[in-house]
Design brief:
With 113 residues, the chain is mainly alpha-helical. It is built from four helices and two strands, in the order H-H-H-H-E-E. A hairpin with a 2-residue loop joins strand 1 and strand 2.
Length: 113
């Protein structure tokens, strides 16, 4: 399990933002600017995005995938969708904190926010 996930829970379930180590912030911000959808970069940096970019980044760093990893033209995994995401699903690590929907093939059946 991602050690930063456990730390994020201590911030309260309304936060859902996995912290990035301070020494990794320049690399994280560089990755975010290249990878996130342009309309989501500012909200991600402010922690108000509907996706936990810090969680995805930390996971990719653990797996050494950050440079060859995801970008907004590809679909980010559901693992880090927050409960306010339009397609928040039972595949999210935050599913226990909301009302997740689920995917059947390419069809999403929403649980509601």
């Amino acid at each position: 399990m991602n050690p930063y996930f456990l730390q994020s829970l201590t911030l309260g379930p309304e936060n859902y933002n996995t912290p990035v180590r301070p020494d990794m912030m320049p690399d994280y911000n560089n990755w975010l600017n290249k990878s996130a959808h342009p309309l989501d970069i500012q909200s991600a940096q402010a922690g108000t995005s509907d996706y936990d970019y810090g969680g995805l980044y930390n996971q990719m760093m653990q797996n050494r995938q950050a440079q060859a990893g995801y970008n907004y033209e590809n679909h980010f995994p559901d693992t880090f969708k927050k409960p306010n995401h339009p397609t928040f699903s039972d595949q999210s690590q935050y599913a226990m904190f909301g009302n997740p929907g689920n995917w059947v093939g390419n069809d999403y059946f929403g649980g509601g926010r």
